[in-house]
Design brief:
Residues 88-338 form the GS catalytic domain. Belongs to the glutamine synthetase family. It comes from Streptomyces amakusaensis. It catalyses: L-glutamate + NH4(+) + ATP = L-glutamine + ADP + phosphate + H(+). Its EC number is 6.3.1.2. The chain is of the alpha+beta class and 338 residues long. It has 9 helices and 14 strands. It is globular, with a radius of gyration of 20 Å. The protein starts with a strand and ends with a helix. The mean pLDDT is 96. Bound molecules: adenosine-5'-diphosphate and manganese (II) ion (4 copies). One manganese (II) ion (MN) binds next to β6.
Length: 338
Amino acid sequence: MTFKAEYIWIDGTAPTAKLRSKTKILADGAELPLWGFDGSSTNQAQGDASDCVLMPVFSCPDPIRGGSDLLVLCEVLNTDMTPHPSNTRAELTEAGQRFASQEPIFGIEQEYTFFDGDRPLGFPVGGFPAPQGGYYCGVGVDEIHGRDVVEAHLDNCLKAGLGISGINAEVMPGQWEFQVGPLPPVEVADQLWIARWLLYRTAEDFGVSATLDPKPVKGDWNGAGAHTNFSTKVMREGPEGYEAIITACESLGEGSKPLDHVKNYGAGIDDRLTGQHETAPWNEYSYGVSDRGASVRIPWQVEKDGKGYIEDRRPNANVDPYVVTRLMVDTCCSALEK
Ligand code: ADP
Ligand code: MN
Ligand code: MN
Ligand code: MN
Ligand code: MN
């Protein structure tokens, strides 16, 4: 007998990479082999040297096909087995190992927007719905658009065994969020990429599309982010927890760090980080307790307990989770090491 392995990888589309996948039939019990693809069709190679290599790095049950079928996340390699330039996971793996003793973990809040053709789901043809206010965590057909898709996606993530920790309707109609984690850096990023693939794939069956566009509607409508929650063992457990939390917040504001981070937090970040709609301006770093207008928020409970985690509110919905987790681990764990 055989099973189907859906090999999933991240392509070279600029400025924001896309997910690609194709199916391999394998004999029951077979190990997941290296595979290849035509890199000239994914912005990853020239036509005269088009072969790229797929190296399986994470697999889970395929909740759509069921049975013993698998989803297989891959790193892209060159034919000499070195990481392809589009492969941001390889660098995170190194950083993760370097700081593993601090036990960093992340929870990422993935916001996204459903589209029905060229308008957000719930937007009337040729116009706009009622202004924002009632949609966030709403209930009822006047406020909620796409819940059937969201529920199917949640069930698929759970069947796949992903560490998804919740979902909610967002501030703009047709906009939703799911959270992955808390998990170590490589794990949270791998699982977020699979959860994104499952989002697109699930929505396909409902005839809607999902986008990570950080500002899908210009004007007085919230953008879509990927708030990235972070802690190390010391931050979580104390007794120096709060001191470590402040060290982490300060480290993110030092020297060139604010810009180094923001310019790698997803294409179009200055359209979203305007200082409006629960954001801080992209060119001004700040942190504060309970402050949803700051770059980095310390939840009130964390201040009260004197330990816990911080929330970097800047990453766009279209951020590469391998990049944001690497930058945060590099910046914060280096500072905490001292
Ligand atoms: P909010 O919408 O209020 O910002 P959410 O509940 O959507 O918050 O997301 C909070 C995220 O923080 C979740 O993904 C959760 O897994 C994560 N989280 C909780 N505790 C920690 C921790 N100690 N370290 C890192 N992430 C954490
Ligand atoms: Mn072919
Ligand atoms: Mn949230
Ligand atoms: Mn949100
Ligand atoms: Mn948040």
